[in-house]
Amino acid sequence: MTHAREMLDTYPGAAALDASTLVECIDACFDCSESCNACADACLGEDDPKSLARCIRLNLDCADVCDTTGKVLSRQTAFEPEMARAVLQACAQACGLCAEECEHHAMEMNLEHCRVCAEACRRCEDACNNALSELAA
Amino acid sequence: MTHAREMLDTYPGAAALDASTLVECIDACFDCSESCNACADACLGEDDPKSLARCIRLNLDCADVCDTTGKVLSRQTAFEPEMARAVLQACAQACGLCAEECEHHAMEMNLEHCRVCAEACRRCEDACNNALSELAA
Amino acid sequence: MTHAREMLDTYPGAAALDASTLVECIDACFDCSESCNACADACLGEDDPKSLARCIRLNLDCADVCDTTGKVLSRQTAFEPEMARAVLQACAQACGLCAEECEHHAMEMNLEHCRVCAEACRRCEDACNNALSELAA
Amino acid sequence: MTHAREMLDTYPGAAALDASTLVECIDACFDCSESCNACADACLGEDDPKSLARCIRLNLDCADVCDTTGKVLSRQTAFEPEMARAVLQACAQACGLCAEECEHHAMEMNLEHCRVCAEACRRCEDACNNALSELAA
Lengths: 137, 137, 137, 137
Known about the structure:
Distance between the termini of chain A: 30 Å
Radius of gyration of chain A: 16 Å
Number of helices of chain A: 5
Largest interface: A-B, 42 and 42 residues
Number of strands of chain A: 0
Oligomer: homotetramer
Shape of chain A: elongated
């Protein structure tokens, strides 16, 4: 349980986007950031991290992009659609690249942390795409 | 719902601390970070942000410290108790300072976002203190 | 003086992009992130932060995006052009939006911190565009 | 060259600490953060990253702590000595732990990126300790 919805509902003004879309996206961003940081670390804890170098790298990148996207979306004051669009596009792309890599290791190497992380990445990719659709509407 | 517990459970090795304590602390850190970023923004959206300058500033500091603490605790590989202790102490302190400021505005100015944010800060402060107790044991 | 060039030169492999372009971009990202965080704080320290709410908000967003872009570009292992392109595009956009806002306050309100910050944003915007050109080549 | 000094000099009020001490600490924090992120990546690019797992982990932790410390010190509005002290203590500790690990690999394995990173860590550790001394004065 996070306080994201309550924080949005107590904002002194109108939210920039539909509240449910926004809260789902904020929650998904921070969850994905945590999952990616944990997956990079779990890959490093495996017997052969060298074979997981690309996964670790994409995990770290994706964690950073999600973290930033979650922060930008947490702000409603003077909301700037171009800024939101720019970070959401980068985030959907980052999550897609990281999910693909994690899914590969989940299937080929049976790595459970990659399977869970891919799930968090796909959820975040979807949430970003939903927010982008709403921005375009 | 976050994936923090699943990520920890699929780590290829033993967690550094009791899993429930750790997951509660990781979740509380990211939740507090989001709440503090949102509270800084909500304060800025109020009619007189000047009167909330200290709250905005402590919110931003606390958000950064919680974010870092959540990341450090998400890593189990080569766990270093001194590193964990250092960030947990800073985090408990940051959360306490920010909670106090938010509680003041929640009561004096009836600001609901400060009330919700103070709740997230106190939860994170407690979670950090619990993790610190376990580290000391 | 930063250690970015030395860190890149001691990387055990080839850098993803031309070293000078890369180092200039990394340095510009972290410099812009710091300038934006400081400008948000300086705006908050002015007599009427309400009139600077959009500047503070864009400063915070831009700081977060630059920070992430600097981190992604600091990584050479398993370099992924699509990831680099995604963050560089978001960063050039964020810096452009923030620079425009800061330039406005520098001229209209004679705010020196906005003038310096706009300079850091324009430098970072240019550095991101240079890196994007090289990626496309 | 960073804009940190110019940003501090254009702040509309008095800086919390001696300007030179503060700017040196801010610059050292962001430089150390970049160096640690780059060193984690360079370690991952080596033939046997498994043997460098502790270095990678401490690098990532130290990067996060330095990043947060640089941001907190970039803010002068409603400066809170207890907050500054908490993050500076954590940062000096993180830099010391990471420097020690990097120095070990610089000497034993002749890793140049670890040598450069250790230099950035020691510079930041010193800068944090200087700022702490001034806070205590």
